[in-house]
Amino acid sequence: MQDVPVVLVHGWKSHPGIWNRLVSRLREEKIPFWNFDQTPLNGASVEEIAVALQEGIAKTREEREYFGDIDIICHSMGTCVARYMLEVLDGTAHRERVRQLIGIGPPNNGSALAELFNHPHYGQEIITKLSGIFVPHGYDPARDLIVQQFRPDSPTMTTLASAGIRDDISYRIICAGNLSRTPAFFPAFYGKTWEGSPTSGWRQTYAGDGIVPHSDSILPGATLDILPHDPSVLAHSSDEYCHIKLPRNQEVIDRIIGYLKNN
Q1: CA geometry: angle 184, 113, 133, nearest 5 deg
Q2: Ramachandran angles phi, psi of 157, nearest 5°
Q3: Contacts of 107 (CB under 8 A, 6+ apart)
Q4: Rg (CA), the chain
Q5: What are φ and ψ of residue 99, in 5° steps?
Q6: What dihedral angle (degrees, nearest 10) is formed by the CA atoms of 80, 72, 104, 76?
Q7: At 103, is the secondary structure helix, strand, or coil?
Q8: Residue 215's domain is classified under what CATH number?
Q9: Which of 15, 59, 77, 166 has the most CB within a 10 Å radius?
Q10: Distance (Å, whole) CA 192 – CA 203
Q11: Quick count: other Cβ atoms within 10 Å of Cβ 29?
Q12: What number of helices (H) and strands (E) belong to the chain?
């Protein structure tokens, strides 16, 4: 039986190269894949990127003469781009034949950090701590359309929440957590992740990957993996489980391959 092809969707301010270790494994397993590159769409909206993804999938289907099911693997905000394509653009039509959607550290409910970037008290301090690590030096969130759209109460996130997940797709969420509470997990925030909202208040938690808290990722109806399975590995490789490195994390890759092979 032919393996189901995989579409790879990277995240915000990232690039297709983040999948290099997964791509090597896919080749070993002889699983066909297509690496969607959204870097030329810098400055585009979530909807515009979702349309490009939809058109890219359609073009690839035609080129490969394959019209069966596909799997989609996404990192971070790439998950919401794929969901926007499936749940908003495709909606109840279900023209997109997708077997499963696997999201790695996704801000499914909007990003607490995106909201905090705009906070009058916390914003600049957090941006300064993440400069050169997660955002460029001199970063201005007011000029970043994607960050504005990923604020939890934005029209984009409200539209996505209202659409709801599809009952013909298996949703898989893979997250990391600082289970050993070590500051080296994500030094910029002393091993913690910001979570909360303007209404419920802000706090820091070990239940996150430094950038995305579990509360941002949890999606009703989706399976949820919180890694590492063995917290003791964080004693010597804690930084391998932070948000930025998750697509190249070996345990994450093993879990993905398990889903692709055994769905």
Answers
A1: 45
A2: -70, -30
A3: 76, 77, 79, 80, 114, 150, 212, 216, 217
A4: 18
A5: -80, -45
A6: -30
A7: strand
A8: 3.40.50.1820
A9: 77
A10: 10
A11: 11
A12: 10, 8
Within a domain: 14: yes
Please report whether residue 52 resides in a domain: yes
Residue 2: per-residue pLDDT = 61
DSSP string, 44-61: --HHHHHHHHHHHHHHHH
Q: What sign has the CA pseudo-torsion 130, 122, 147, 83?
A: positive
Q: Give the pLDDT score at 147.
A: 96
Q: Which domain holds residue 239?
A: 6-109+154-182+208-262
Does the CA dihedral 112-155-164-76 come out positive or negative?
Answer: negative
- For 167-199, what is each residue's pLDDT tens digit? 999 999 999 999 999 999 999 999 999 998 778
Query: Is 146 a domain residue?
Result: no
- What is the pTM (predicted TM-score) of this model? 0.96
Count of structural domains, the chain = 1
Paired with 172 in beta bridges are: 102, 223
Residue with more model confidence, 121 or 80? 80
**Of all residues in the chain, what percent carry a pLDDT higher than 90?**
90
Please check whether residue 21 lies inside any domain of the structure: yes
Name the nearest CA neighbour of 192 among 106, 129, 254: 129
Give the rounded percent of residues in the chain with a pLDDT score beyond 70.
99
